[in-house]
Amino acid sequence: MAQNKTQDNRAWLGVLPVMLIVAFSGVIPLMTVVNYSVQDILDFNTRFFVGFEWYRETLTDPRFIDAFLRQLGFSAAVLAIEIPLGIVIARGMPTQGLRASLLLVLLATPLLIPWNVVGTIWQIYARSDIGLLGVTLNEMGFAFNYTAEPLHAWLTLLATDIWHWTSLVALLAFAGLTSVPAACYQAAELDGASKWQVFRHVELPRLKGVLVIAVLLRLMDSFMIYTEPFVLTGGGPGNTTTFLSQYLATMAVGQFDLGPAAAFSVIYFLFILLFSWLFYASVMRSEEGS
Amino acid sequence: MARIRLQEIAFTYPGASEPTLQPISLDIQDGEAFSLLGASGAGKTTLLNLLSGILPPTQGRIFFDDVDVTELPGRDRHLAQVFQFPVLYQSMSVAQNLAFPLTTRGSTLNREAIDKRVSAIAKELNIESILKRSANAISLFEKQLVAIGRALVRPDVSVVLLDEPLTAVEPSIKWRLRRTLKHVQDELGVTMIYVTHDQTEALTFAERVSVLADGQILQTGTPEAVYQNPAHQFVGHFLGSPGMNFLPSNAFPQPLQRSFAEDGDPETIGFRPESAGLTAPSEVLLSGIVETQRVLGTAQGRVVSMYGLRCGAAQVFVRSPASFACGDEVGIALQRWVGFREFLRVGSNGAE
Hints:
The complex is a heterodimer. By secondary structure, chain A is mostly helical. Chain A has twelve helices and two strands; from the N terminus they run αββααααααααααα. The radius of gyration of chain A is 24 Å and the shape is globular. Chain B folds into two domains: 4-234, Rossmann fold (3-Layer(aba) Sandwich), CATH 3.40.50.300; 242-340, CATH 2.40.50.140. Chain B contains nine helices and 18 strands. Chain B has helices at residues 44-52, 94-103, 111-125, 140-152, 171-188, 199-205, 223-228, 233-238, 254-262; strands at 4-11, 21-28, 33-38, 59-64, 67-68, 79-82, 159-163, 192-196, 208-213, 216-221, 245-248, 268-271, 276-279, 286-299, 302-311, 314-320, 329-334, 338-340. The model of chain B is unreliable at 347-352 (pLDDT under 50).
């Protein structure tokens, strides 16, 4: 059979445009970074091969490790708050009528605001001298000052991210909830299920798909967060809100350390890939296991 | 298990001008297999929702045994429902699904008693082999069996409502599920209310059937009685395939009209395709012209056909082993007929 099969390689020509686009937009730039990461670049003409030196240096750099741990903490906090909060909002929403439409528009609004504007909004809002939130908190007796207190800076950043992105989780969860058939709720009601059991056994299994997407999106996005802390705190006070992307930007653009920055980028990219893959694989495995 | 009594139950959707359900009274015996039969839009689902407590009746009372449950929420009525498509807790195993109603609020059974009950139900439905499987990983047929099992698992269940439970199941295994249901009903003696638009399902499952149209119960009786002696033209029309034939009594020849007159002088005569025969035309018989013929099969060595005949303005169907061709004039001999007081044109959705 195999010998009789007509061989026609012209089909490859059809794939060629896509391969070219992917090569120029993805593979070649990435490989350029990989290429930089194994060289020491002094100027445009002077460079020499250093092997894995930059990788070793980056992974043992205490500032990198600190930024990495901060990043982990930030992403974990964002997920731990935004996912449950989004679900709660989605469950509380009316499913039809004018109120539902208005709420959907309201929820979508933060998603339409550019990142740096969001940062600026909160930068002003939380200022202890003129910001509505900052002044109010101080009036109430909390000595709130996010430019001086690391904890306050963190809380402000978290509030910004939650304000900006919880809507996304809520909208995804809302879409998931609308697909739960009414009969499922009715059956649970007749079975005498409690509110928690209805959520746990009727809604959550059907939300699983959209929640996986929500967690992946929020994980990747929060892990790459740059604009908001850049506008809001500039990484301070000290380095307490300097996350990976900001440290990287300082290195690559500020100090022009192309080699170490490239190694940093590759490590950064691999970590995001690894986390996403670990999460996705564990979800898929639990799917098979059940 | 309970006896279900509906007392002048009626329902009108808020804002609607026409009631969806006219006042209905029904008395369903403890342990009875009861069926509600009607076309879509007849009010079957509304009646079911009133029973399960999703909708409050506009008027009337509902009694389970002698307890007035009209104001009780669904979960306190101790009823169970099987839906058109299998409703399962998809993240649980089959056994967990079956046990779920026993583990919720108000259930006092211990682990051992629950396991015992689950395995008894599983045995009854012959699904012991899939108990450990995930509810997601079984066939549609098995899923519906599990849903039925979950409806039956509570020992205190008062009534099981079945809302067209065979809709989603493939035709080839419908009869298996139907037989299982019937078997379980016989075995456990659970009061069951089976809602369907499918006359075969209703007539084979139930001890008594109510035929619904336009929010009213037209007739309640044994399948035999409802089929053979419809109290309303729509019932005759709706049951059977094709349904009952109707002709004004003055369309019949004189001698027949006289015998009708002795029997209450009905306006309309109905007869079923299988309770008439075709012979040569005669003075004393209803006459018709053969328009269509469709062979149904053989009976006692003779080919039986369904004939479509024109009788004046009306078309009637007669099942007969006789052999006629299209265009032949024939006599229609009635073996059995039902008289109706008035002549109604019968539509597909109800009496007009």
